[in-house]
Write a structure and sequence with these properties.
The structure is a single chain. The chain is α/β, with parallel strands linked by helices. The chain has two domains: 8-161 and 322-334, Rossmann fold (3-Layer(aba) Sandwich); 165-314, Rossmann fold (3-Layer(aba) Sandwich). Helices cover 48% and strands 15% of the residues. It has twelve helices and eight strands. It has a four-stranded parallel β-sheet, sandwiched between helices. It has a four-stranded parallel β-sheet with strand order 6-5-7-8, with helices on both faces. Strand 3, helix 5 and strand 4 form a beta-alpha-beta unit. Helix 10 runs parallel beside helix 11 (290-306). The longest helix is centred in the first third of the chain and has 27 residues, at 44-70.
């Protein structure tokens, strides 16, 4: 809760984006992203060789082509939507709101400098569900940057909002028209290696019985459990019937075991099963980006149509939707 006269700065933190949709920019971005030990958690020498000698050189041209397919006149979709959210939130709160990216620009260091002299920072990691490779690394980088400065202001942190009624209401409202008339609704979340889940939540069995306990308590460290809780909240709001929806996980990288089922396997299989009109939500993202617009809106749609489907509708993320801006402003004001 803000005290009278307190100079408070709000810092939004999202994942990041290349500066341009060209191979050199994407290569630079991938190197920074994948050299993060919370993202690719293998010994540093092995990580350096894998990233710099294999992944970045060979993946950059393909990723650059994907970025070009969704790049806007005002730049990266993720950056554009995040800037719009930052501006709308500042107007709603009447406070200084600055955007930072964990990787790429604007950097966390630059954003802290832009905040200027403040009595307290309210950090808002823009990830509905907690993962070490998203929320964890964003906060780690923030603390490291602040720790290197002479004055370290108090920091309040918005926790994961996977069950927040305002977030769920805003996402459900955006989905309602696209859900109407759909044969099936798919909730597609960003995937993670299974060992990341087990490392964050010792004893996790990666089963619905484990992630959806009878107590209803969602573990604060279990990404999969929080994804299932988000689905549960959206299904209730959209009035979806049993059997009319399912969950999957997208954006795998590498050969180890990742969360299942995989979206790129589920989408064509739904078409082969006779689903003609498919609606897809991606509620682990608050801003539309490469993973939603290209991976789902272009590639998954092509795979669905090729397998016999007739229409794939991608529901927009909450982006800077007024209902989401109001919900986020209320949460920030509570901190």
């Amino acid at each position: 809760m803000r005290t009278q006269g307190e100079r408070r700065g709000v810092l939004l933190i999202n994942l990041g984006t290349p500066d341009a949709p060209d191979t050199a920019s994407v290569r630079r971005y991938l190197r920074q992203f994948l050299m993060d030990g919370r993202v690719l958690d293998i010994p540093t020498p092995a990580r350096w060789m894998l990233v710099n000698l294999v992944i970045a050189p060979f993946r950059s041209p393909k990723s650059a082509k994907a970025y070009r397919a969704v790049w806007r006149n005002d730049g990266s979709p993720l950056l554009s939507y995040s800037k719009a959210l930052s501006q709308a939130l500042a107007e709603k709160l009447g406070q200084r709101v600055v955007l930072a990216m964990r990787y790429g620009n604007p950097s966390i260091a630059a954003a802290i400098t832009e905040l200027g002299e403040v009595d307290r920072i309210v950090a808002v990691p823009l990830y509905p569900q907690y993962a070490s490779s998203s929320t964890g690394t964003a906060l780690g980088a923030l603390f490291a940057e602040l720790g290197a400065r002479t004055f370290v202001p108090p920091v309040s942190i918005l926790p994961p909002f996977f069950e927040d009624p305002g977030f769920l209401d805003a996402q459900a409202a955006l989905a309602r028209e696209a859900v109407a008339g759909a044969d099936h609704v798919l909730f597609s979340y960003h995937s993670l290696p299974e060992r990341h889940i087990r490392a964050a939540t010792p004893g996790c069995q990666l089963t619905d019985a484990c992630c959806l306990p009878a107590s209803g308590r969602v573990p604060p460290s279990c990404y999969r459990a929080q994804c299932l809780a988000t689905t549960r909240g959206l299904v209730a709001r959209l009035g979806l019937a049993p059997g009319g929806w399912s969950e999957s996980f997208q954006s795998r990288l590498g050969r180890e075991a990742w969360l299942k089922p995989a979206t790129d396997a589920v989408v064509p299989e739904l078409a082969r099963r006779g689903v003609k009109r498919l609606t897809v939500l991606c509620p682990s993202f608050v801003a539309d980006c490469l993973e939603t617009l290209e991976e789902i809106g272009i590639r998954a749609k092509e795979e669905f149509l090729a397998a016999g489907g007739e229409e794939l509708r991608l529901v927009p993320c909450v982006n800077a939707d007024p209902a989401w801006v109001s919900a986020l402003a209320r949460r920030v004001d509570e901190l």
